[in-house]
Amino acid sequence: MSQPITPDSEQFLDRLNAAVDAYIERMQGQRPQGTKTWIAEQLRIDRTTLYKYLDGTNRLPLNTLRILIRLVGLGNDEANTLGYGKDSRQTGHIEQYQSIHPR
Predict the structure, then answer these.
(1) Which of 24, 39, 76, 99 is deepest in the core (most CB within 10 A)?
(2) Each residue of 12-61: pLDDT tens digit?
(3) DSSP assignment, residue 4?
(4) Cα–Cα distances in Å, from 80 out to 36, 44, 45, 54?
(5) Is residue 2 one of the residues assigned to a domain?
(6) Number of domains in the chain
């Protein structure tokens, strides 16, 4: 049974969705890169699974998150805002998110 998303997890998902939306906006008109379907294909998942990751229904595996961060072109500052990045000393929101969305 899944647990409710806490405010910190909601904040994490909001930031992640904003990053994906910003990427799609930058790529607007450039098919197929400007679609969530293309992003899902690059992650080797289907579009429904991507949507479930982004809305918090399914747990987002850390490796998938790392690839997604690179795909959407997040710099270290943005990745650190999510709680993951080259300079991040801890994974903050990601660890909390994963703890309430166990495998």
Answers:
(1) 39
(2) 888 889 989 999 998 887 778 888 999 999 999 999 999 999 998 998 88
(3) P
(4) 23, 25, 25, 18
(5) no
(6) 1
Full-model pTM: 0.67
Domain membership flag for residue 68: yes
What is the extent of the structural domain holding 56? 7-100
Compute φ and ψ for 45, nearest 5 degrees.
Answer: -130, 170
Number of C-beta neighbours around residue 30 at 10 A: 11
How wide is the angle at C-alpha 62 spanned by C-alphas 50 and 56, nearest 5°? 45
The separation between CA 11 and the C-alpha centre of its own chain, rounded to angstroms, equals: 12
Whether 28 maps to a domain, the answer reads: yes
- Asked whether the beta carbons of 71 and 44 are under 8 A apart, the reply is no
